[in-house]
Amino acid sequence: MRPDGGASARPPLVTAAGILLIVSGALTVLFTIFLFDVSGAAVFYVLLTLAVAAITIWAGLQVLQLREQGRMLGIILAGIGAVFALLALFRGTPISVVNLALDGFILYALVTSAPAFR
What we know:
Layout: H1 12-35, H2 42-64, H3 68-90, H4 96-112
């Protein structure tokens, strides 16, 4: 709800998708920093993971501002995340169901709310 009493220009699904992208990126940064021992060949993987996390946070901020490039980037990142969650699920990682559901929600929210973006 806007301060003047009018309806919000940003649909609630878009707000939720933007917040989920930001939280996902922030958690990835935290887990990467605290769980990985950065040595040897792992340095490239850690830097790549941190770069993708930063892009995810940026996409979430762009989605909250209703920018089309944020929506497209969010769709791409959630699609890639869903593919990796499916692969992890097939390898026997049950927690991947949660990742798959969250990525699926982000995809649904951003694809169905296309008219809200500039």
